[in-house]
Amino acid sequence: MPTRQACDLLGLSRASVYRARTPLACGPRRAPSPGSRPTALDTIERAAVLAVLDSTRFVDKAPAQVWAILLDEGICLGSVSTFYRVLRGHGQVRERRAQATHPARVRPELMATGPNQVRSWDITKAKGPCRGTYFDTYAMLDIFSRKTIHWEVHITETGEIARDFIDHSIAINDGAVPDTIHSDNGTSMTSKNVAALLSDLHIQRSLSRPHVSNDSPYSEALFKTIKYCPVFPENFTSVYDARVFMKTFFEYYNTEHRHSGIGFYTPASVHDGTWKNIRDNRQLVLDSAYEAHPERFCQGRPTAPDLPTKAWINRPPTTIETDTDPRTHPTPKVSHQP
Asked: Do 139 and 198 belong together in one domain?
């Protein structure tokens, strides 16, 4: 019977069978002795090697470089492996050269209590008529009112276009200059043209951390709303076609879309302050419904939704808020933001 088949039947290892058939000529293997080898360097020699490796002359060089330089000078303290062995024994087997350190990126924390305080802008791409062609949509929105202040569609993305876009967004909004403009770390956002413009206008520039899309939640949510729109085309035939669609969409978004984040008011009404009239009209309708059928309202008289008092980008982990309006926060509360 073949050895493989016999081992499978008996549940044995073939290696064990072969070792049993041909035992080692020198007998069983001896366990290695815990002591050092007789050829190893003694304590004084190891200290000398370590002193040379840590000297000012060789502290930034690899052990192989040190070994070659010493050998050229007629000095042999040991092999390259010996150098590594000595360094490993003292916990120095790592990058010996000075490494560049980068400070941790600061987590942006912005708060707006009204329009024209903090704006967020970004660029998204829309597919063109053929593969590999895209149209860039620039959009600037106010994080408190959610209104898209200004938008443009271009065939490319450059710092010059970004600078002009920001300049136009301020001019089209009656010259209202925000305190802060937030964006991600795109090439256009970090360009010198944009930085110079914001500096001239005394606008604070805020940037997201690299690869952290949650630092620009309002712009990301706006672009998702655009691309998940049922009428959003799979691709645009031309840049003019894209501009026509974006014009129709942003007019609807600003004036007709009831945004859940701002009490189901339109961004335009929040931006110009007319939302208060809309809230009062809603309250009149709710009061009439309650007077007609109070039994249908199990929790008492209904109230129209109010507008949030603050809009945050990266709200601090723990903040204490006190709202004087009993319809929103009857008592001070501690809110936790993950």
From this structure: yes
CA distances in angstroms from 172 to 4, 29, 152, listed in the order given: 85, 88, 12
Q: Are 126 and 139 in contact (CB under 8 A)?
A: no
Pick the residue with more confidence: 281 or 61? Answer: 281
Judgement on whether residues 123 and 91 belong to the same structural domain of the protein: no
Alpha helices in the chain (DSSP H): 3-10, 14-21, 43-53, 63-72, 80-89, 159-171, 192-200, 217-227, 239-255, 267-272, 275-292
**Does residue 306 lie in a domain region?**
yes
CA dist 142 and 54 (Å) reads 58
C-alpha to C-alpha distances, 336 to 212, 310, 333, nearest whole angstrom? 20, 15, 10
Q: State the total domains in the chain.
A: 3
Residue linked to tokens 């993305």: 157
Q: What tens digit of pLDDT does each residue of 202-228 get?
A: 999 999 998 888 899 999 999 999 999
Q: DSSP letters along 133-163, please? A: -EEEEEEEEETTT--EEEEEEESS--HHHHH
Of the candidates 152, 132, 148, 129, the residue with the CA atom closest to the CA atom of residue 140: 148
Helix axes 63-72, 80-89, angle to 10 degrees: 130
Helices 192-200 and 159-171: angle between axes, nearest 10 degrees = 30
